[in-house]
Amino acid sequence: MIALRSTLAGRIFLTVASTVILLFLALPIVLIVVTSFGKDAFGAFPPDSWTLGWYKVLFADGSKWPAALSLSALIASLTTVFSLLLGITAATALVRSNLPLRSAVYGLVLAPLVIPQVVIALGLFLLFEPAAMLGSPIAIALGHTVLASPIAVMILMATLKGIDERLEDAAASMGAGRLTVARRITLPLAMPGMIAAAIFSFITSFDEFFISQFLSSVDTTTLPVQVFNVLQFDVDPSVTAISAVLIAIAVLALVLVAAVRRLGGGGKQDGLLPTEPAVGLSTGSETS
């Protein structure tokens, strides 16, 4: 392989281009966070003066934000449990079994990621409306699971592919049953991937809007829907504060994922995160 020579002009161009792209991606986030501390009720940027008043408004008496925040946390927790159950089952079947039509099944599992969310939301509405489940946290959580479970499946498939099957074979050869092998070998080694899948499932549900909008009711309004409702009918500067809180939660989740990767071996365990979309579905893996 011929190594490409890097020139000074090339390095400068890459540095400038990378900086511009990163600023473009981060600028909306920075703008929201800075504006949330501004005193101007119309969210001017940059702020003329600073205050924490909009954060105090979030938790003042009569505020709807705490109820929306707690409901979103409840639904995201339920979605995390559902997604992990589906993810572990599907990933095990796709990676560790001779499942027929494996590639087709894998594509079906990932389909919700490429189908427009509004279409999925409409389908879920038509599904839950006859069952009188609209407005139920369980129904919203099941709807969010449709989006979160493919992400969990990808992460857990990558995690299972990173586990040396010879360890399981060695335990089985010494008399350990399937449950013992799973409990003593597979699950401990897969724990970092399971934690990462749980974090991504939680964040996917916590930020989801379209499905929540279709399935929620007046009494069950999630945080993203509440933000939309406030912006639709009023100019409330406290929206910037709750948006900053959402950004902080997302950043915290990324920090947790990075910590899990480090504790789980980082680069030593390949494919902890979904960086290998075709993992487990290559020709070699199907024949193995």
Write the layout of secondary structure elements.
Layout: H1 8-36, H2 53-58, H3 65-96, H4 102-114, H5 117-128, H6 137-161, H7 165-173, H8 178-207, H9 210-215, H10 223-233, H11 238-263, H12 283-287
Helix pairs in contact: 1-11, 3-6, 3-8, 4-6, 5-6, 6-8, 7-8, 8-11
- SSE-based structural type: mainly alpha
The total count of helices amounts to 12
Q: How many beta-strand runs? A: 0
User: What is the 3D shape?
Assistant: globular
* Major β-sheet annotation: none
In percent, how much strand structure appears in the residues?
A: under 5%
Structural commentary:
The protein is mainly alpha-helical. It contains twelve helices and no strands. The chain is globular. The C terminus is likely disordered.
Give descriptors for this structure:
288 residues; mainly alpha; 71% helix
Summarize the structure.
The chain is mainly alpha-helical and 288 residues long.
